[in-house]
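WARN retry 2 of 3 for item q-0093 after timeout on previous attempt; input resubmitted unchanged.
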Amino acid sequence: MSSLFTIRRLALIACSIGLAVAGCGGGAEEQAPAGGGGSAAEEPQDAGGPAPEKSVTVDMKNIKFVPMDVTVAEGGTVDWTNSDQVPHTVTKGDGPGEQFDSGTVGPGGTYKRTFRRAGKVNYVCTIHPGQTGTVTVR
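OK item q-0093 returned
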């Protein structure tokens, strides 16, 4: 009886270790963010991939731009909507194309910008300097 108990106990331990190992690590494909972003946004699009969107929407919510990083086609537009109870701005930091500044966008307000030159544009809310975002134009 005691050897049967020992065998069952060892089997249970082995199964527990197997389950723990299976739940750890994960492949890189599981950790990649949906919809691109990160350094992949700076890489040229491969010919077989989907075309960038002509219009993208960004929400100003909880003192953040959501999503923080977007990709739009050359000649495409980005629409920002202020869903916060405080004002924000959308002000270009650096990157290709003309300077832009939305001015104060109050709660419920919107700002729309067309991007005509390829590259990565960094922008910020000048009221909340920690609130930043990027637009990658392809």
